[in-house]
Specification:
With 158 residues, the chain is mainly alpha-helical. Among the domains are: 39 residues; 48 residues, no CATH class. Helix content is 28%, strand content 3%. The protein has a two-stranded antiparallel sheet with strand order 1-2. A hairpin with an 8-residue loop joins strand 1 and strand 2. The N and C termini lie far apart (71 Å).
Length: 158
């Protein structure tokens, strides 16, 4: 398809009337919508706002959806094993700790000798870190290491 003088004049007329590129392509015939857009651009015809992007504010604001906390999923059968369910790893409950008042303010991450597992909420007065001795090379005691680190298989390093 070539752009003859007649087709260019027809393009200019239809463009000025406000027809869409698809409508112009259909009326001229034998050209695509993209060909119309490209030729209009090369001719320097006045651009028009996109019908998709409206410049004005929305007439009605969308309602906000309040996020909810996801509920834990029930155990599902493993793929390919009908009737077999996969159980989640049970973490033993933490025994009650007797924490001296002095360790609440002095220990924590970076102290180098005590477990750095946080207990409580940071904004509250009873917030502290576990005061048990840390496992060599780890920031946590043995109990909290069992909760923080999960081995992929029996041959994985501790």
């Amino acid at each position: 398809m070539t752009w003859t003088d007649e087709r260019v004049m027809r393009l200019r007329e239809l463009w000025a009337q406000g027809l869409s590129a698809s409508q112009i392509a259909a009326q001229i015939g034998g050209i695509s919508r993209n060909a119309v857009i490209g030729k209009a651009h090369r001719l320097g015809l006045e651009g028009r706002p996109s019908p998709i992007r409206s410049g004005g504010p929305r007439t009605k604001p969308r309602p906000r959806i309040k996020p909810t906390m996801p509920q834990p999923a029930a155990p599902r059968p493993a793929p390919g094993l009908s009737g077999v369910t996969v159980k989640r790893r049970e973490i033993p409950p933490e025994p009650a700790l007797q924490i001296p008042t002095a360790t609440k303010a002095t220990n924590g991450p970076g102290s180098g000798h005590d477990c750095a597992w946080p207990i409580g909420n940071p904004g509250e007065t009873d917030f502290h870190f576990c005061d048990r001795p840390a496992v060599e090379g780890r920031p946590y005691c043995a109990h909290h290491c069992a909760m923080a680190y999960i081995r992929k298989d029996k041959t994985a390093a501790a």
